[in-house]
Write a structure and sequence with these properties.
Elements (H helix, E strand, L loop, with lengths): L6 H4 L4 E5 L4 H14 L3 E5 L5 H11 L4 E5 L4 H10 L4 E2 L5 H8 L5 E5 L2 H10 L3 E4 L7 H9 L6 E4 L8 H5 L7 E3 L5 H5 L3 H12 L9
Parallel strand pairs: 1-2, 1-8, 2-3, 4-5, 5-6, 6-7
Helix pairs in contact: 2-3, 2-10, 3-4
Bound molecules: 3-phosphoglyceric acid.
The site of 3-phosphoglyceric acid (3PG) has 11 residues, from strand 8.
């Protein structure tokens, strides 16, 4: 089975900012700073009351942004996220019901997993790129390096605990297409409206080189 692949999306940037929007008014300037800095893929987490409206605002108003919805944990969120304009979906883990719902969609999904068995099962279902979460707590880059031997076909976007100090441990692995992280969108910068700071962090992240190939 072949599902819509996140591959061409992830080719756009080595880092996917994982964004938590508390105030709707922050969404558009934040997304502009990320896109202008070179990170067009943006995951807005569905963890705040304004998250869906934030997805809608960024999708409608920020040219060049490719906005997705993260923290998708149940079926009911899927339709709302897509209706708001999300062009990809991300989950922290994947229950059987969620996997079944994702598999019926026409948008790329990065389904979450944290073990070899979970990853194998999702690949069997047709999910080509998996979110490895929580990356650092689940074994980090060492885990991904270890499973590349027996399972070289599995490819990941790890997220959770990744920052400037360890991002290259991940991006230097051939089975890591990109990483997700919140370090480029610090809460204090968002709260204080310091989007220049976000722009600078995005610009630094956008230049990171990765070992993975996208063929
Ligand atoms: C999340 O869903 O919170 C992401 O995994 C972000 O993790 P981070 O804040 O450790 O980058």
């Amino acid at each position: 089975m072949s599902l819509p692949s996140p591959l061409s999306l992830l080719a756009k940037a080595p880092v996917v900012p994982v964004v938590v929007i508390e105030r709707l008014a922050d969404a558009v300037p934040l997304a502009r700073a990320l896109v202008d800095g070179g990170l067009p893929l943006i995951e807005i987490t569905l963890r705040t009351p304004v998250a869906l409206e934030a997805v809608r605002a960024v999708a409608a108003q920020v040219e060049g942004a490719v906005v997705g919805a993260g923290t998708v944990v149940e079926r009911a969120q899927i339709e709302a996220a897509l209706e708001a304009g999300a062009t990809f979906l991300v989950s922290p883990g994947t229950t059987p019901a969620l996997a079944e719902a994702f598999a019926a969609l026409q948008v790329p999904v990065m389904a979450g997993c944290a073990t070899a068995s979970e990853a194998m099962r999702l690949f069997e279902m047709g999910f080509e790129v998996l979110k490895f979460f929580p990356a650092e707590a689940s074994g980090g880059a060492g885990f991904l390096k270890s499973i590349a031997g027996p399972l070289p076909h599995l490819r990941f976007c790890p997220t959770g605990g990744i920052g400037p100090g360890n991002v290259m441990d991940y991006l230097s692995l051939p089975n890591v297409l990109a990483v997700g992280g919140s370090w480029v969108v610090p809460n204090e910068a968002i709260r204080s409206g310091d989007f220049a700071k976000v722009h600078a962090l995005a610009a630094a992240a956008a230049t990171l080189k990765r070992a993975a190939t996208f063929a």
